[in-house]
Design a protein that fits this description.
GO terms for molecular function: oxidoreductase activity, acting on paired donors, with oxidation of a pair of donors resulting in the reduction of molecular oxygen to two molecules of water. With about 325 residues, this protein is mainly alpha-helical. The chain contains 13 helices and 4 strands.
Length: about 325
C-alpha cells in the first residue's frame, strides 16, 4: 500500500510512504515507536490531563503573580529562550522536517530537532507526526483527528467542535496507527529512540529553567520563579498556541490560497506560533518550507531553515517560488 503524505506541486517529487500489507497478527504485536502502543491507557490519560491542567492553571495565575512577587528580567529571558527553542523544535523539526520533509539534513541536526521538539511536551515525535499526516490526509473531513467542523456548522456545534479541535481530541483513546502514517520514522532507529525517551525530555524540559534560574541567582527563590515562568507558564502558553492552529486557524482567518479545507491565516498568532498561523498557504502547499509568503508575513521558522541552509546543515529546501505561489492563488 502506498500513502502520499502531501500533495506535491508540479515538478517536485512528492513525499511517498510505501507500507507493506499489515500482517494478520494480534494488534498488540504491531510495531510502535511510542511506549504503550497505539491505545491510550488510563495512566496516560491521567498524565495527559495533568500536563494540560497544571500548566494552564499556572497560566491563569500568571497575571496576578506578575504584579506581586517573583517576576524579573531573568525569568522573562529564561521563559522566552525556552519558549522559542521548543516552539521551533515543533515547527521546524516535528512539522516541516519530519512530517512534510520540506528539507533534508544530516543525522546530528535530525536528532537535535527531534529532541528540541520533544522538549515542548506535545507528545513523542512519531505519534505527533502520525497524527499530523492523518490530519492532512482528511483535513476537515471524516477521519481528521481534530477538525472544529466535526459536529456541524451551527453555533453550538462549532463551539463543541472548537473545544474538540483545541484539546478534546487529545483524550481520544484510539490513537493514529504509527506503522501506517509514520513508517519511515518507526524504522529510523535514532528517531524511534528519541520518541521512546519522551518521558526523559519532558523531565528535562521541566528541570532546565529552575536549574538555570537557581544557578544565575544562586537562590532557591530564583529556581522556584524560573520553574513557574520558564516551565509551567511557558509550556501552557506553547500548548495553547499550538492547539490554536488546529482550532482557530481552521475556523477563521483569511484564505488567499486554494485549499480543500477551511484553513485560514491568523496574523495575530504569527509571532507566538513561529510562523505556523499562516495556515492557509500551508494547506495549499504542505511541503513548502515557508508558510508566510506574502508581504509582512513573519515566519521565523522559515528564517531558521534559511540559516540552516546557509550554514550547510540543510539541503534540497522546498522554497515556494513566485510561480508556485501564483498557481495556488484563490480566484
Amino acid at each position: 500500500m502506498t500513502i502520499q503524505a502531501d500533495e506535491a506541486p508540479s515538478g517536485v517529487r512528492p513525499v511517498t510512504l510505501t507500507v507493506t500489507a499489515e500482517p494478520a497478527t494480534h494488534p498488540n504485536t504491531r510495531i510502535s515507536a511510542t511506549l504503550g502502543g497505539e491505545k491510550q491507557g488510563l495512566a496516560e490519560r491521567l498524565a495527559l490531563g495533568l500536563f494540560i491542567l497544571v500548566p494552564f492553571a499556572a497560566l491563569l495565575a500568571a497575571a496576578p503573580v506578575a504584579w506581586g512577587w517573583g517576576l524579573g528580567w531573568r525569568d522573562v529571558l529564561i521563559a522566552a529562550a525556552m519558549y522559542f527553542l521548543t516552539c521551533h523544535g515543533v515547527t521546524v523539526g516535528y512539522h516541516r522536517f519530519f512530517t512534510h520533509r520540506s528539507f533534508k539534513t544530516g543525522r546530528a541536526l535530525k536528532i537535535a530537532m527531534a529532541v528540541a521538539g520533544s522538549l515542548a511536551v506535545e507528545g513523542p515525535v512519531v505519534r505527533w507526526v502520525a497524527d499530523h499526516r492523518k490530519h492532512h490526509k482528511f483535513s476537515d473531513q471524516d477521519g481528521d483527528p481534530h477538525s472544529p467542523w466535526r459536529y456541524g456548522e451551527t453555533v453550538p456545534a462549532l463551539l463543541k467542535g472548537l473545544w474538540w479541535a483545541h484539546m478534546g481530541w487529545l483524550f481520544d483513546g484510539e490513537q493514529t496507527p504509527q506503522h501506517i502514517y509514520a513508517p519511515d520514522l518507526v524504522k529510523d532507529r535514532d528517531i524511534r529512540t528519541v520518541s521512546r525517551l519522551f518521558w526523559l525530555w519532558t523531565l528535562l524540559s521541566m528541570l532546565i529553567p529552575p536549574l538555570i534560574g537557581g544557578l544565575l541567582s544562586w537562590s532557591w527563590q530564583g529556581a522556584v520563579t524560573a520553574f513557574f515562568w520558564g516551565s509551567l507558564v511557558r509550556v501552557a502558553l506553547l500548548h495553547h498556541v499550538t492547539w490554536s492552529i488546529n482550532s482557530i486557524c481552521h475556523a477563521v482567518g483569511s484564505r488567499p490560497f486554494r485549499s480543500r479545507d477551511r484553513s485560514g491565516n491568523v496574523w495575530w498568532l504569527a509571532v507566538l506560533s513561529c510562523g505556523e498561523s499562516w495556515h492557509n498557504l500551508h494547506h495549499a502547499d504542505p511541503t513548502a518550507a515557508r508558510h508566510g509568503v506574502l508581504r509582512g508575513q513573519v515566519d521565523s521558522s522559515a528564517r531558521l531553515i534559511r540559516w540552516f541552509e546557509q550554514a550547510g546543515w540543510a539541503r534540497d529546501v522546498r522554497w515556494p517560488d513566485a510561480g508556485r505561489i501564483a498557481a495556488r492563488r484563490a480566484a
